């Protein structure tokens, strides 16, 4: 089977070829390329599907043989340095290949319908193929330099896709924010790579890990310097995986098209940071201080993301903060040494979050026909509600994704998240407490999003009607000759001229109603989008059973413990399944999850459990006694934990003030000294010019005056001495 591994380069090469061909044809033959845009989309999907099938073959071979393969070619040869490029195939690589290609294919199929109206359709598929190829190249890299090259390509593709609608100011600002924030992490990563090369003399993972451990054991390197280099290495994953405090770019990245949000949050950009942390797990594990820092950064990120997501009105930003929180779980797991739990959660979360984002895209796609293309309206869950009646497949699949992300058995994320929570309690009680609280908060805000989106009634309808009006895709609602439709709440009737009705802001209007218009309600998405949603429900529902604690010898009993382990560290431990212990741990975590769901159902659910008078009294009681608490929660969520504001003051405004101070110092101090000397010399030269007039009497007067002045000074000095 080594023959198959030799052709692993085909996996990243195929989507790269698709990107190059689409991009070059779009550049040289734009009209013909755009006229054949669906053919180019099918071409991209076909090549990535071939790469996906090849990835499944590699995964099966890894499960069967469990052998690490490396293929290297010399790139730079010198007396002092020898650098090679190639591919590395191990369990982590094989599972990431399958994850990236499967999610990538489904996102491409989904995008063929979702982006069909967009003028940048072909450009989108060129970016998408390059994005996928860059991530595939990253996970196959056998050394740090090659990883850094593809790391930057992934960052560049993120920049291009987040700012895909670059004429929209918010999208342009979002891609710049993501680019600048990731530059901080990438600079730290570059310094860390340089430091490890200085210590070990190698970029190759196997050689680097072995030499680093030998140097630590023999005390041949400074422990604090090694910890500093490891921390700099981890700075890259902090930025790429949106960990605190470099998490601020991720919510703004929702300005890109929704399929890209699914790909970024499931299988590419944010997964790259977790992948690199897992790849560098052996040297991190040898440094206890770094492991503690990683675990606490993960815990803080998980809790922070969950608290900010509590009151988000934008459905995509709510899911973005959910991703940030779940990435915190993965980082926490790696920090406490729970390697397989962290990677298992990376896999289960990827499919669940891809399902949720594509489901939100289906909702947004349907809401655009009602409220327009402005993200402030079509993504605002305040205008939604009751969509399960009109979009049953989207509603059901979104509910399955919600069940999984909340950690409800037997869905996928339950098995991985429960293992992380259990391991964190064993490692340190404070981390266990944070992970448990975060699980409850996750259940609350996810069911809040689901209830406000799919349950109840369509809130874009007011008591009698609502307004439909076109909004530009760039969010500009001030267009000329707008034809407003005022539609009654009943599906088949139009308001009469004399009826009172309300627009979506609740203000009363009286206008002439056209009786030729039909009522518009959300509709289910087309077959391509629904197909991707239905396929993603399969791993979201059943993938978690790979981590079930089956007894030894049964199917699935040793897949994670014996196959998914850190590179160059064989795991010889076989743990028998203990369903009693697992059940007790699962019961405690599930009780917290169901508590969060119950509170969300009481506050946002469609069913009222009390009479109207009692409900009004309860609302007045909450408003009177908990007004400050609710206001704080809302403001904390709305202002993103105030972190963006502090960054604005400290870094943005601080940089501007520093620039002004430097400009003042340069203009008045540096230039002032130079200009002062030049003026002094010019004045001195101008003054002495009049002393040299060519008259002998003037020269004699100057000579006698100077001699007298010298005698006076000399006599004064002698008098002072004696």
TrEMBL record:
Belongs to the complex I subunit 5 family. This is NAD(P)H-quinone oxidoreductase subunit 5, chloroplastic. It comes from Chorisodontium aciphyllum. Coiled coil: none annotated. NDH is composed of at least 16 different subunits, 5 of which are encoded in the nucleus. Residues 448-666 form the NADH:ubiquinone/plastoquinone oxidoreductase chloroplast chain 5 C-terminal domain. It is a multi-pass membrane protein. Its EC number is 7.1.1.-. The chain crosses the membrane at residues 6-28, 40-61, 81-109, 121-141, 147-167, 179-201, 221-239, 260-281, 293-311, 327-348, 393-412, 424-447, 530-550, 586-607, 699-721. It holds the Pfam family Proton_antipo_C.
